[in-house]
Amino acid sequence: MSALLHYKVEGSGTPLLLIHGLFGNLDNLGGLSRDLKEDYQVIRVDLRNHGLSFHSDQHNYELMAGDVAQLLQSLELSDVIVVGHSMGGKVAMKLAAEHPKLVRSLIVMDMAPVRYDQHRHDNVFAGLFAVQERRPSDREEAMDILAQHIEMLSVRQFLGKSLYKENNTIRQRFNVNALFANYQSILDWHPVQPVRKPVLFLKGADSDYITQDAQAAIQQQFPQAKAHIIANTGHWLHAEKPQDVLRVIRRFLASV
């Protein structure tokens, strides 16, 4: 039995769980939470090896779904709406498959129930390991180290949200070593038995995380799936087009 995940609860009403992606934390979906907590009881979690949750050498979807199930059971919640982005989307799908009584409906943001082969995070890991190794004494120095490996400013700013200072050294809240060691498990996916619950797949129009090839896998594993494409946005659709994403989420939730 693992320790409980770190979490925040806001609002009241039907429970709605928000699950962040790789290298994130519960604040990443704060924009969605600020809106949705007006009508729902919103629970945000830090997944294992992220944020303020426990660190572990093991990191795979079965374990992460189990962590989330354990938290929901401890809060005496069931029939929960689950919203997950990227890696969090796979956790949400696994949770619905393994613990169906806990899940009412699913919203999966820019992720498919398939194995990914492309290593998209090599430069991110290089930057994070460099920060770990060089032990910068202030945030500016840490961000400069990241810039030597990661070209995109938005990615560096995103990673910067998990930096903090301890004993005059900048540290990272996520467990870089474990995430690197388990990266293949993060890319991986073992198809689940059909989940017959309402599911909305939200795709960023400019993102290649959900491809034409993935549609058969989606229909096979989630036969009640609907899809919506958010125009002019990439993988971080909820950050780039929050109002569009919220409008589609609310429309879906009103229909199920």
From TrEMBL:
The superkingdom of the source organism is Bacteria
Question: Which Pfam families did the record assign?
Answer: Abhydrolase_1
Query: Which InterPro entries does its entry note?
Result: AB_hydrolase_1 (IPR000073), AB_hydrolase_fold (IPR029058), Epox_hydrolase-like (IPR000639)
GO molecular-function term, one example from the UniProt record:
hydrolase activity
Q: Where is the AB hydrolase-1 domain?
A: 15-242
Record's protein name: Esterase YbfF
Under Enzyme Commission nomenclature, its number is 3.1.-.-
Kindly list any coiled-coil regions of this protein: none
Q: Which UniProt keywords apply?
A: Hydrolase
UniProt-listed PANTHER family: PROTEIN ABHD11
